[in-house]
Write a structure and sequence with these properties.
Layout: E1 5-6, H1 11-14, H2 27-41, E2 45-47, E3 57-61, E4 76-87, E5 91-98, E6 101-111, E7 113-119, E8 125-131, H3 132-145, H4 156-170, E9 180-181
Parallel strand pairs: 1-9
Antiparallel strand pairs: 2-3, 3-4, 4-7, 5-6, 7-8
Bound molecules: nickel (II) ion (NI).
The site of nickel (II) ion has 5 residues, from α3.
Length: about 190
C-alpha cells in the first residue's frame, strides 16, 4: 500500500524517532509499504517519520542515481536503529532533495565517509563503513530520525531565502504527483 508522505513543517518530521523493537506491530507490512511508497515517488530513500511513524527505521534504494553514480547501483537496504559511530573530517557538497520538500534542491555539506551500526530487517546487527553517494543517502535519512531535514543544514541566508517556498509546501501549495499530508493546509469550504 502506498502511504502518504508528510510535508515540511509536520510535527512528526520534527520529533526524535524512537528505537524499534522486534515486536513492533506489523513491522514487515510497514517496511513493504515503505518500499512501495519509495518506488512510487521515485526517491532514493525514505525514513519512517516521512510516513508519519516516529521510529528509527529508514530504507534506501540508490538505483535511481545510477548510472550517474555507479556506487548507487543495487544499494537497496533497510536500516533499523542505526547509530552513526564515526564520520570523516573530509566533507563533500551535494545537491540534495527530499520527498517531504518537493521541488527544493540545495547544496548540503556532509562527511564523505561514515561508520554505521544498524540492524537489518531481520534484526541482525551490522557495523559497516559507507562512503560517497551511499554515505550521502544514509546521512540524509538518518537526519530525519533526529527531527531534522536537509534545509536545516544549509547556510542561514539560503534558508531565509527559502522561507516562502517552505511555507507554501507546508500549506500544500506545491506541485507534486504523490499523495502528501500537509500540516498547514486550509480545509476547503
Ligand atoms: Ni528526506
Amino acid at each position: 500500500m502506498i502511504l502518504p508522505i508528510v510535508a515540511y513543517g509536520h510535527p512528526t518530521l520534527k520529533a526524535i524517532a524512537q528505537p524499534v523493537t522486534p515486536d513492533y506491530p506489523e513491522l514487515g507490512t510497514l517496511i513493504q509499504d515503505m518500499w512501495e511508497t519509495l518506488a512510487h515517488s521515485e526517491g532514493v530513500g525514505l525514513a519512517a517519520p516521512q510516513v508519519n511513524k516516529s521510529i528509527q527505521l529508514f530504507l534506501v534504494d540508490g538505483n535511481p542515481f545510477y548510472p550517474d553514480y555507479p556506487a548507487a547501483k543495487d544499494f537497496k537496504q533497510v536500516f533499523i536503529n542505526a547509530e552513526l559511530l564515526e564520520a570523516s573530517e573530509e566533507m563533500e557538497p551535494f545537491r540534495e532533495g527530499c520527498l517531504s520538500l518537493p521541488n527544493i534542491y540545495e547544496e548540503v555539506m556532509r562527511p564523505n565517509k561514515i561508520r554505521l551500526k544498524y540492524l537489518d530487517e531481520n534484526f541482525q546487527e551490522h557495523e559497516e563503513v559507507f562512503e560517497g553517494i551511499r554515505a550521502r543517502i544514509i546521512q540524509h535519512e538518518y537526519e530525519h530520525l533526529q527531527g531534522h531535514v536537509f534545509v536545516d543544514d544549509i547556510a542561514p541566508l539560503r534558508k531565509t531565502l527559502l522561507q516562502g517556498k517552505l511555507r507554501a509546501i507546508s500549506e500544500g501549495k506545491c506541485d507534486v504527483d504523490y499523495r502528501m499530508i500537509f500540516p498547514r493546509k486550509k480545509k476547503h469550504r
